[in-house]
Amino acid sequence: MAAPMFLFGIGAAKAGTTWLAQALRAHPQAAMPPFKETHYFDSLEHDSALWSMDQLIGVRQGVRVDLAQAKTRKIRDRLTFRVKEMDRWMGLVGAKVENDKRYEALMHRRANDETRVCADITPAYALLSEKTYKRMAALNGGKTRFVMILRDPVDRLWSNLSMTAQRRAKRGRPLDDVQNELLRGITDGSNSAEMARSDYASTLARLTKAVPKSKLKVLFFEQLFEKDTLEDLSEFLGFDDVLTGPSEPANAGAGQAMDANTHTLLADAMQPQYDFVMSRFDAVPPRWQDNMKGPVQ
């Protein structure tokens, strides 16, 4: 059996990457690290190892809680193994030095003779440079693939802003105040990080310069769960059996209703993204076209 390829999953918060990770983790020919998001490349490029470690430690703590509550030896052994694997990854990220050989070794650790794909699904990779994408594409002897998921810009941005607002409101601030503050950050440009995550055009420009066309698959979130999409993605990844997964997005959440004024504000901010995607792709999901025209319920 040939050595498995590496798959890098790229997107943005609330754009289907958790669903993709769950589907891959359940597939017999895919292997994944113990974290959904390793943050290896972004922590190096953006000097954000401390933030990345906080994310990884949070996940590890959850597993430790499960371990303390485990009722059978089989479950305890499985969780203990997972904690040890997490510690290996945290050692890599926490070292804050480029060590691609170690990264490759960790990616391969959970592979077996049937594995076709070792996947690292980290949405923050959407903010990486062309140089880093080239480096990633050359790993594993060049046996790499990239998948980027695009979600309707207004829907994705509002979903993420609503999630952020609800989290901050739990710390004691009125929800409306937090939402208005976040929306002002979009209109006045102060929330540059969120706008960067929404910048599909820039990410794809860097990716297409660094990654051969045959190694890059761009998917629409709105079509992610359709039979044709799953068959196409499975062929791209070399799977014998078609990828399946939950019938709905992961971590969808109820979210807040978006009023007409907010929709107009976000649609105006995201217009360059609509223009780019419409010009690049022959067809886009109806949701995108409807959201460009006005509020969609």
> Can you give the mean pLDDT?
90
Strand content: 5-15%
The CATH H-level superfamily is P-loop containing nucleotide triphosphate hydrolases
- Report the principal-axis shape: globular
CATH domain class name: Alpha Beta
Number of helices: 13
Number of domains: 1
- According to DSSP, the number of beta strands is 5
Extract low-pLDDT stretches.
Answer: none
Order of helices and strands: EHEHHHHEHEHHHHEHHH
Helix/sheet category: alpha/beta
Strand order, sheet with most strands: 2-3-1-4-5
Radius of gyration: 20 Å
Biggest beta sheet attributes:
5 strands, parallel
Q: What is the CATH architecture assignment?
A: 3-Layer(aba) Sandwich
CATH topology: Rossmann fold
* Helical content class: 55-70%
Helices and strands in order:
Elements: E1 5-10, H1 17-26, E2 30-31, H2 40-45, H3 49-69, H4 73-95, H5 100-108, E3 117-121, H6 130-138, E4 144-150, H7 153-169, H8 175-187, H9 192-197, H10 200-210, E5 216-220, H11 227-237, H12 260-280, H13 286-293
Parallel strand pairs: 1-3, 1-4, 2-3, 4-5
Helix pairs in contact: 3-4, 6-10, 7-8, 7-12
Please, could you describe this protein's structure?
With 297 residues, the chain is of the alpha/beta class. α7 crosses α8 and α7 packs across α12 (260-280). Strands 2-3-1-4-5 form a five-stranded parallel β-sheet, sandwiched between helices. It has 13 helices and five strands. The protein has a single domain (5-32, 110-293), classed as P-loop containing nucleotide triphosphate hydrolases (Rossmann fold, 3-Layer(aba) Sandwich), CATH 3.40.50.300. The protein has helices at 17-26, 40-45, 49-69, 73-95, 100-108, 130-138, 153-169, 175-187, 192-197, 200-210, 227-237, 260-280, 286-293, and strands at residues 5-10, 30-31, 117-121, 144-150, 216-220. Helices cover 56% and strands 8% of the residues. The protein is globular and about 55 Å long. Keywords: Transferase. GO terms for molecular function: sulfotransferase activity. This is Sulfotransferase domain-containing protein. It comes from Ascidiaceihabitans donghaensis. InterPro entries: NST/OST, P-loop_NTPase.
